[in-house]
Design brief:
By secondary structure, the chain is of the alpha/beta class. It is built from 16 helices and 11 strands. Helix content is about 45%, strand content about 15%. The protein is globular.
Amino acid sequence: MKKIWIFLFASLLLIAGCSSGEKSNQGGSKEKKDGSITVWAWDPKFNIAAMKIAEKYYKESNSDFKLNIIENSQDDIVQKLNTGLSSGTTKGMPNIVLIEDYRAQSFLQAYPDAFFDISDYINTDDFAQYKISSSSYDGKQYGLPFDTGVTGLYLRKDYIEEAGYSLEDFQNITWEQFADMAIDIYKKTGKYISTNDPSDLGILRVMIQTAGSWYLEENGKTPNIADNKALKEAFQIYKKMVNAGIFKETTDWSQYVGALNSGEIVETATGNWITPSIKAEPSQSGKWAIAPIPRLSIDGSVNASNLGGSSWYILNVDGKEEAAKFLAETFGKNIDMYQELVTEVGAIGTYTPATKGEAYQTADEFFGGQKTISDFTTWMEEVKPVNYGMHTYAIEDILANEMQKYLKGADLQEVLDDAQKQAEAQIK
């Protein structure tokens, strides 16, 4: 009898232990068994480097804090999040994940319960407002804005001067004016004005956001193509430049950067994240300058836009409060940390109180002593907020095909009408 009781008691302990183990794994990140906060991010020299700097600052007053950073490509993060969250579980998910601004709404709208509301942890008024609109949903703030993709018009001063222009000629101009000058510069110097990848229409995003417009209505769901005045003007300007033969055709990132560093092109209109790639060719120091991005001719358009950028999000798993506290104390308020991010990583954050810091006022000798960081932060605060919605890339795939028809002679309105119908059929 005694042996039977011992056997039953041992069995109960075993069952209890198994039950406890299973429960601890549900709804949480399996990487967090040691009490650390797990982060998924891409780009070790930029995003991950920034997160490591944040960890260093946070540990100054939280010595026991542990951060586990796992590098994934951006595509892998998108796939893993969709696979995991669509299955209805957060098992295996990180505490913090980096998501590109163009993709954020697709996750927030599809899986709102999977993300942690950080409205009480940060002051949204302290960030560039165009970033707040892309990282919030249904009145709640889910993302902590990180880097800005604020754009600039990078120009080879020696080439434009050879054609009889100065940097002042590129201030406060429209895209139509820019196209005319670009064609003239090409004729006078024989230099391609820029590169062009027919499959990548990021330049359209840059153009239409100057007018506060996007591929979708303000609700972020309804396609806004057929009657989109900004998009129509952008199509016309793009065709004008393509037909003039002023672009060097490229098909990938390495060809694009190669054209910049080899001196084959006059300018590139893109996000500030291209700065390190341009500076990678030291022989060109002093030959570059950065002007504000051109604007569309539509009333209310501004000489400021955005291309790219990302924000930090917290999954609704164990440790979410600690993760929120960590982000709030670093990316949400630490001005000194942001100075180091600028100088050591080249990351221009969207936390506006930090823009008054010394590092943001530094002159860059590569760009002829121009205070490029200060200029970018000024333009950043002028970027018009738009709702990127859930379908930026899906619609651009449609537009890329329709653009080819337009370039070959199809009627513009018919092209846009067709794109509208395709988008409506695909987005339901």
